[in-house]
Amino acid sequence: MIGALMSVAPDDPDTQARLKAFNEGLESHGLIDGRTVRVEYRWAAGDLSKIERFADELIALKPDVILANGTPIVTVLKRKTTTIPIVCALVIDPVGLGLVASLARPGGNITGFTFVNAELIGKWSQLLSEVAPSTKQTAMLFNPIINPQYFDFLREIQTARPDLPNVTPLTAQTVETLHSVITKLGHTDGASLIMGPDAFLLVHVKEIAAMAMEYRLPSVSVYPQFAVEGGLMSYGPDVPDIFRRSADYIDRILKGTNPAELPVQQPDKFQFAINLKTAKALGLTVPPTLIALADEVIE
């Protein structure tokens, strides 16, 4: 049996792409849910309070391996089991958080695939500078309870890329706070918005895209759905590819491979989308070179 603890909601478009790729990956190894294998899902839907309970439920089922989607979920599972193999999908800074000994040799019951680092934050800032050259300040929106490591990433990128506009934290833990901080940013001259990778924010991606448009904020997110919903751009790792590769790791573990010997891998495929309709509404001209690089152009 495979356990799967997901940080997202089951009906999100982004989730459906993840599940499709994951199931395709399993089926390529003859692992068909409901026929040759059983997959037990639990959905946290951006709610930290559900993770502890769902982790206990899955562990009690004694699965052969657990797919752990997101850093908070991996952190909880590490505390609760050292014996059940865990394949993490979209974990952030696993070495820094002490989840694995190293990327090359994890050394315990956890392995899998990372998601975001300081370099990617720098890329988002660079994209905003190219599309909106009047940008004076970029704010990165995230939930500090779910992703406190972003504070370190922001300091790291400021040191590494002093040529880019200053990227400051913009934190929100509730819907009310989310609306309040974006409204305040919207009244800041020359501001732009990065929607950080965060399960809480993904649940509210449509609202965030709409508010960015309302306050005329040039914006970018790691999630493709953000650009579809009216955000200016999305750029980030190919998430379905990560879930497809996670299925490969699960197959190897089910066949006897020790997770301690499977290296934690970093993304090697990225997706870039631009919403030209939004750019036009904001009075921005997207450089032709960026349009040529985009995997998806929304008009």
Set down the secondary structure blueprint.
Layout (H helix, E strand, L loop, with lengths): L1 E5 L6 H15 L11 E5 L4 H13 L4 E5 L1 H10 L5 E6 L18 E5 L3 H14 L5 E6 L7 H11 L5 E6 L3 H12 L4 E5 L3 H5 L1 H10 L4 E3 L2 H5 L4 E5 L1 H16 L15 E6 H6 L6 H6 L2 E3 L1
Parallel strand pairs: 1-2, 1-3, 3-4, 4-5, 6-7, 6-8, 8-9, 9-10, 11-12
Antiparallel strand pairs: 10-11
Query: How large is the radius of gyration?
Result: 19 Å
The CATH class name of the largest domain reads: Alpha Beta
CATH architecture term of the largest domain? 3-Layer(aba) Sandwich
Uncertain regions: pLDDT < 50 for 5+ in a row?
none
Overall number of structural domains: 2
DSSP strand (E) fraction? 15-25%
The structure class reads alpha/beta
Spell out the CATH superfamily of the largest domain. Response regulator
The spatial strand order of the largest sheet comes to: 7-6-8-9-10-11-12
Cα distance, first to last residue? 44 Å
> Under CATH, the topology of the largest domain is which?
Rossmann fold
Shape, per Cα inertia axes? globular
Q: Residue share in helices?
A: 40-55%
How many helical stretches?
12
Number of strands: 12
H/E series: EHEHEHEEHEHEHEHHEHEHEHHE
